[in-house]
User: What shape does this take?
Amino acid sequence: MINKQKLWFLTLFSLILVLAAYYIAIPENSLSSLIESENTKSSATNINIEENDALATLRIADDEEVLSQMENLQSVLTDSKSNADEKSNAFEKLKNINLNKGKEDTLENKILNKFNLKSFIKIKDDQINVTISSKEKSYKNANDIIRTIQKKKKKKKYITVKYQ
Assistant: This one.
């Protein structure tokens, strides 16, 4: 049974996917001509476009992967043929997926607030992969980000920082 929260999540996720596909499908010259025509119509309006395609692509791919994992685990939970151990394992995996998503969002917000850098973080077991959207590649920033993330963790984690 689908509750309201799941329905909203699926609706918004579908909308994001459609908008992302539309943005990717638009020819680049039509976007620039649209911006130029908008600028000539009103000089008071400034349009700033930031290119974070790499981070958006990573987020979409990760969301699709997580969604498919969740659907598989939910089908195990709702399947009447599954035994108690399978259902318990599926529930634990769902719980871990949700906890990891929360940790990833928290770390992304911390990097944004502390270093003023947009990032994408993927936590998998004891590995944390950080992708930073920045033209300036700084080893000092990467080292500071690794230290900031490690301070939040009780166990040692393998943390990688990559610039896009």
